[in-house]
UniProtKB/TrEMBL annotation:
One example of a Gene Ontology biological process annotation: cell wall modification
Boundaries of every Calcineurin-like phosphoesterase domain copy: 1-224
Listed name of the protein: Metallophosphoesterase
A GO term for molecular function: hydrolase activity
Cited Pfam families: Metallophos
């Protein structure tokens, strides 16, 4: 059995169309939407609406962790515009292209920048969306939990720690834990380019210790200090920033 795993697609539909080649199934761990490309500030919903110069400034403020100033900039730019309608229209355009690129079968969960309320409209019959749920693939049990935890970035699908922990607990015994965010381990949460810690989950780390799955697969941190680490019986793997690599991570058994 061969499964390809991707995360942090961020608009890369071209490579997504080929991500399932040679595999029995594709797993996607979220962040389909591209709001702003931190490597190329001309790409994404934000520069399409407000231009590259404003995108440069927003990235500068966020990278410096000056989140309040970034919010002030954003609020000024959005004045007089229907923010929700503009973002939803742009996300719909991206989702139409990205969901059409998924092979059959695909098993997917949400990232923190996704809009779960729209997924039922775009997920085709070959795509199974899971969040706080399990599925058997080739004799192994895979558990999925999507989204991220609360941060000053205030991305669209952030949930509180208690709700996230309840979803992890609801999975029970699984062979493979599939999440968007990593367990709360410094080396797995630190982004070496952004030079900051992203939020990881303590509940996920606890489940790794108690459930002892074969694998914990995740994304979210684009340039992690450590891409993989063994915790007890579990191999923890950041499957990579698919938007930049265009290459899925492979799991075979």
């Amino acid at each position: 059995m061969r499964v390809h795993v991707v995360s942090d697609v961020h608009g890369n539909s071209e490579d997504l169309e080929k991500a399932g080649d040679g595999a029995d199934a594709l797993i996607c761990l979220g962040d389909l939407v591209l709001f702003l490309d931190y490597a190329d500030h001309s790409r994404g919903i934000f520069p399409d609406l407000f231009g590259v110069e404003n995108a440069d400034r927003l990235v500068e403020l966020r990278t410096a962790r000056r989140f309040e100033e970034a919010r002030v900039l954003g609020n000024r730019l959005w004045e007089g515009l229907d923010r929700n309608a503009a973002i939803e229209a742009a996300v719909r355009r991206q989702y139409a292209e990205l969901f059409a690129a998924f092979p059959t079968p695909t098993y997917a969960t949400y990232g923190n920048v996704d809009m779960p309320s729209l997924w039922p409209e775009y997920a085709q019959s070959g795509t199974t969306v899971l969040d706080g749920e399990r599925v058997e693939i080739g004799g192994l049990v895979f558990g999925f939990v999507g989204g991220g935890l609360r941060t000053p970035m205030r991305t669209p699908y952030e949930i509180d720690d208690e709700t996230y922990a309840a979803k992890i607990a609801a999975l029970g015994e699984v062979d493979v834990l599939c999440t968007h965010i990593p367990p709360e381990v410094p080396d797995l949460c630190y982004d070496t380019v952004a030079r900051r810690f992203e939020r990881g989950s303590a509940a996920l780390l606890e489940a790794i210790h108690t459930v002892r799955p074969k694998y914990s697969l995740f994304g979210h941190v684009h340039q992690p200090l450590a891409r993989r680490m063994r915790i007890g019986a579990t191999e923890c793997v950041n499957v990579g920033h698919f938007a930049s690599s265009g290459t899925p991570w492979t799991l075979e058994w």
